[in-house]
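S.,

Sequence below, as promised.
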Amino acid sequence: MTKAVFFLLNFVIALSAIPVSQASTSPNDSPNPTRPNILLIVADDLGYADLGSYGSEIETPNLDKLANAGVKFTNLYAAPTCSPTRAMLLSGTDNHIAGLGNMAEEMASNQQGRPGYEGYLNFNVVSVASLLRDSGYRTYMSGKWHLGLEQQHSPFARGFDRSYTLLQGGGGHFDDLPIIGPERALYREDGKLTKPPKDFYSTEFYVDKLISYLQNDRPQATNPSGRQPFFAYLAFTAPHWPLQAPAASIEKYRGRYDRGYDHVLEKRLNRMRKLGLIDSTLSAGPRFPGERPWEQLTREEQKMEARKMEIFAAMVDDLDHHVGRLLDYLEQIGEKDNTFIFFLSDNGAEGHHLERGWKDLDDWVAQCCNNSYDNMGEADSYVWYGPNWGRVSSGPLTYFKGFTSEGGVRVPGFVHYPVAKRTGEVSNALVTVKDFVPTVLELTGADYPKGSYRGHKIVPLQGTSMLPYLNKQAEEVHDAEYAMGWELFGKRAVRQGDWKIVWQYKPYGTGLWALYNLNNDPSESRNLANLYPEKLREMIEQWDIYARDNNVILPDHANVHY
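The prediction came back faster than expected:
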């Protein structure tokens, strides 16, 4: 084989590896210089009450400033865990349709190989990044992907011009410590496997990488005005376990949690009342089964517990700090005021005793890491903060991540967009992560294809644009007839108007449908099933419709401890 033939053959192979969506452009790719940028920021396992603007004592001034100047949502809903939320967020459809009917790592035998349970963002849906790039946007992602491990399922193949991503659900924040060993955590940059650098700290690095993408493309803007709008997806892995942060960040919070989780929770609730986020009569969500009040812990137990929360607080504080750096950069280049920012958490706080339901993780942590008091938070430590601090993060809501109760699916989030007519508001409008895609499509004028995309049949969008609400053309995003459903690990729920039914395993639920009125009882503390049997039947009918329309397959086996 001659050298010329060899190089030509390799060029053809490389070209064939590029997804169709990257190898061609749409005829509609000539950008309008006034079109807004889109910045999507997702925190990982941030609880409902973990930001200062939502009642927390953790210092988050940058996010608080955005939230307070924008529209701060009190009824924003995600999925119970991360990858299902991310699938809905990027596709505008239910996770059971988009490929994450269950988390890939937890797929039950009767779900494997079934449509909607591929374990990656499937091709029945279109990534919002593809749609915006087709419409003339530059597209970037930095952070956690968790929507497919292979190159053909990576951000590179789903519409992102540049990307640096952790492929799995978590990993070390200082290196490629795996979520479960011994294999290392997997990263890709622009589709190619890579490793994080030696000075890696996830929260700082993801922001650095995103800023570098923005900087590198600015001189290459293609439209006559020299400006090409961007879509940037910043997906932090903080404050997901393992809880790790720089020593100086942790030191800032030393001693702040010595009075314990019950004291901190009451302080947060008081702040939430003053901020108008909760009613004055609303109390904390229930204590997790089997957990003890702070005063019943030994001194050594209290010391270890307080340290875990110090690290968690440091991670949230750092997240805010580095978001501030990104905002400063956007300000410097004159793009901040023309950027639509949507911030949210991917699910409720992580409050499980993970070791109880996940033996492989427990065994791995015993092998990999040093969790002594003096070493907690370091790169070779591996801790999580458990159900009592998870209860603090959930505030008035019941339970946390993994549950279909409010603490698992109702998340902190806000829109900041100075051009919108609705600013500086606390909103109780019901909003879902599925609403992001239709919102940005309306905002940018990008089209959603009908019937098929790049040779694949696709489903319609399920979300609703928030734009009429944000511009005061509507008083709600979803009306009282709208039903939002959930299912994960066999745990189920549906909300319609003020009513919600929840099905959870014992001892966390009753193993039967429970009925709640969220207007009077957002903590889901009073089961009204026996008092309103007809309403219960109506809500179960709504669940059946949701399950049918979204191809829900209840697992034949589920980890009831997660």
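Confidence is low (pLDDT under 50) at residues 1-31.

Coffee later?
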